[in-house]
Amino acid sequence: MKKLIYLVVASVLASASLFGARAQQPAADLKIPISIYLPTEECNIPVAAQKMLTNKITLIAAQNGMGASEEFAQFYATCVSTMLEKHVVGGAPAKYMQEVELTFHIVDAFAKKIFNSTSITVKGIGDSEQQAYINSFRKIPNNSPELKQFFTTTNQKIKSYYESQRETIIKMAQSLAKVYKYDEALFHLAIYPEACAGFDQVVDVATSIYQKYIDDQANRNLAKARSIWNAGLDANAAAEAAIYLAEILPEATCYKEALTLSEEIKQRVGDDIEYYRSLEARDNAQAHEAEMERIKAWKEVGLAFGNNQKENTYYDAWVLR
User: Fold this and answer.
1) What does pLDDT average to in each consecutive run of 10 residues of the chain (321 residues)?
2) Burial level of 181, CB count in 10 A (0-12/13-18/19+)?
3) So what's the pLDDT on residue 111?
4) Residue 158: C-alpha distances to residues 144, 192, 226 (Å)
5) How confident is the model at residue 290, as a pLDDT?
6) How many other CB atoms sit within 10 Å of the CB of residue 98?
7) Is 120 in a helix, a strand, or coil?
8) Strand arrangement, sheet containing 95-108
9) Residue 295: what pLDDT?
10) Taking the model in full, what pTM does it have?
11) How far is it, in rounded angstroms, from Cα 96 to Cα 127?
């Protein structure tokens, strides 16, 4: 987690670049994100057929203003299959003919409730039950009026939800940051859609929280490095202290103090410590520059927090709905 956080710092601090790139991106290209989650047993859909349905949901959602993603999102799409009719026609091979009702839900993983729902009926024929499912999913029209209305309405409802809750989300993140839960704070900011009004305000808050995280970690590392160095004052202590000094980014407010300590160690034990620090600084700089090109990379720290608990969060929201 710490390494990932360090990698995204450039994009957080370069908010001007973020806003510039966002301003150049057409508003129509900004989509409300959702995840897709099909609980294996509860949705009554064979695992082998779930990929086909996931692809279909992704396509139709994208055509109607939403962006399906594997990343954690507060709202996720799921589907339940109900068998309406099934026939097995003998032969070599036997043919499975079935008609199923597909009920699509958008679930709020935080509130643990269904946000929106719709149903369609599909038919399929195959050499097995799962193949009949796959073929029925293939037949779902990309311009299905029911699904078009479903995702269009969901898109607007989620957008309205976030815009109305923006101040609450920001206050929650700031409260978490006050008790040093920086990754969780950034998680709540990271899932705020870029397509929603007020996204620039969210980025400003994320930038501030991220800087506090950097400073907090840097101060801890500097204190550790000083403690190790003062206890040993030799080459071994220098090498161990260097590990902590190398974790301090140039953006940290205590960076100059870290350089001063590095110089003190260098004067005492020679150039080895300087070489180690230069090597780490170079590696950090390369990662730093690479992340500058990813205007939304700061979100990764928050999404990493969410992704670590995604499966349990989604499952709990579904079974407790």
Assistant:
1) 36 36 51 84 80 89 84 86 85 83 90 90 88 89 90 92 94 94 89 89 88 88 91 86 85 87 82 54 53 48 68 61 50
2) middle
3) 85
4) 21, 10, 49
5) 45
6) 21
7) strand
8) 66-69, 32-36, 75-89, 95-108, 113-126
9) 36
10) 0.72
11) 6
**For residue 144, with 0-12 CB atoms within 10 Å meaning exposed, 13-18 middle and 19 or more buried, which class applies?**
middle
CA distance 263 to 270: 10
- Cα-flanking dihedrals φ and ψ of residue 125, to 5°? -130, 140
Sequence-distant (≥ 6) Cβ neighbours of residue 71 within 8 angstroms: 33, 35, 303, 306, 307
Q: How many CB atoms lie within 10 A of CB 28?
A: 8
Q: What's the rounded Cα separation, in Å, for the pair 257 and 268?
A: 17
Q: State the Cα–Cα distance between residues 250 and 252, nearest whole angstrom.
A: 5
Two tokens, residue 41: 């047993």
* Alpha carbon distance 240, 281 (integer Å): 16
Is the C-alpha dihedral spanning 181, 183, 184, 187 positive or negative?
A: positive
Q: What does the angle CA 303 – CA 7 – CA 306 come to, to the nearest 5 degrees?
A: 10
